[in-house]
Amino acid sequence: MGEWYDGPDANGQRVFETNIPATKEIQNNGSLYLHILAAREGSHINPLHPQYNKRDVVQLNKMWTRFRKRKVETTTNLLTGETKNKPGEVGENGEIISYWHPNITISMLDDQRVWPAGTPIPPPFDKWIHIDLETMHYDPVLYVNDYWELVSDLIAINDTVDVLPLTITYAPISVFYFQIYEAQKMQKQWNNMLGVVEQSDEENDIVKRTMLETNPYILGVTIVVSLVHTVFEFLAFKNDIQFWKSRKSLEGLSVRSILFNMFTQMIVVLYVLDNDTNTMVAISVCIGLLIEFWKITKVMDVSVSFSEPVLGIFPRLSIKDKSSYAESPTRQYDRLAFKYLSYLLTPLLIGYAVYSLMYEEHKGWYSWTLSMCYGYLLMFGFIMMTPQLFINYKMKSVAHLPWRMLTYKALNTFIDDLFAFVIKMPTLYRIGCFRDDISSSSICTRGGPTERILTE
């Protein structure tokens, strides 16, 4: 079955690499089976040989081509129609085609136990151990371990693929790891039977790739930090809600910035949902958007009128400033700050929109709108702190700010930096994590420490 310290690297592994020619049948969605034979040293594997003994040979057959729906991410330049995609990557989205995985791991189970005669074999061994009733022996378990095969490594087979690379790794496997891998397969089968929604293949790839490629110490720190991140995220949401729920006066607070934050959060949610990202990130930004919507009802008077419906169908929505904001000098400072700010932001927005349209590729006009707005916000969004800083400067105070929420948000931005290296997320979202470091450091160092303690 192999020695645990066998092989060139003394890790029990032996690796064999080869190339398999892709025939016309395989290129046209044909199936390719792997016939795996493991024999005792010196024995014959040909059943027609006079000295052939079936107990010396173990055979396993497995179809190695996979059939999946093609998922094509076609991006083009919206002005010229040109694309950087390779010719083999272009195809009809949703078309079922065959795929090839270039890696296969074959293991012999190192099981030294004796199973009592007449006793049912418990799962998952019952699917692999078949007892010969004549000799009361069972063949060694030859196991194909496909747990660590990543969906992202699959090769689409078409007429442009002439050679299929194959790397065969042989190593023994312990009973402990065998049970873990089989338990994962059984769990997936039960979830399919019960209709439980599982993680997508891309999300499973993220977990596997993280475990394969990340240093164990960094992985352990990431797990601990993720728990801390969840706590800080909850405390930030909690203190943000408490601050606005108990706030009676809007003096010193930029209402226009809150409206802009709602728009910004809406763009972030739409961009994250339009791109391939982690579920945890998507849930977090969606909760943030709901809180921003709720804030609008606290900083402005929102009313719904059914007596004068719009187009005779939809109720009329009325939004106006609260009296504590409209009658305070804060409103004038806020309006003045946004007036000067628009002189700077408008040319930058137009320039970035033209650059994104001319030099970048997008899936469509909707995708371009989201990526353009989100990229713009990441590059120049920190300028939106200017109205609040201007109001703080004019009022000579920062006692009106929600410092607890800002502190937890600042801590989470530095934790997000670690996630940006480990968890798969859109590139622009990663850039936003580093931008938030600068923003959080800037706004937190602007507050007077004495005044901040008194307000808390």
What does this entry show, briefly?
The chain has helices at residues 24-27, 175-194, 201-213, 216-246, 255-274, 279-299, 323-326, 329-359, 365-380, 386-395, 403-422, 427-444, 449-455, and strands at residues 14-21, 33-39, 57-63, 65-69, 96-100, 103-110, 131-132, 137-138, 142-145, 155-156, 163-170, 173-174, 300-310, 314-321. By secondary structure, it is of the alpha+beta class.
Structure in words:
This protein has helices spanning 24-27, 175-194, 201-213, 216-246, 255-274, 279-299, 323-326, 329-359, 365-380, 386-395, 403-422, 427-444, 449-455; strands at residues 14-21, 33-39, 57-63, 65-69, 96-100, 103-110, 131-132, 137-138, 142-145, 155-156, 163-170, 173-174, 300-310, 314-321. It has 456 residues and is α+β, with helices and mostly antiparallel strands. Strands 1, 6, 9, 11 and 12 form a 5-stranded mixed sheet that branches. A 3-stranded antiparallel sheet has the order 4-5-10, with no helix packed on it. Helix 4 (216-246) runs parallel beside helix 6 (279-299) and helix 5 (255-274) packs antiparallel against helix 6. The longest helix has 31 residues, at 216-246. The chain is elongated.
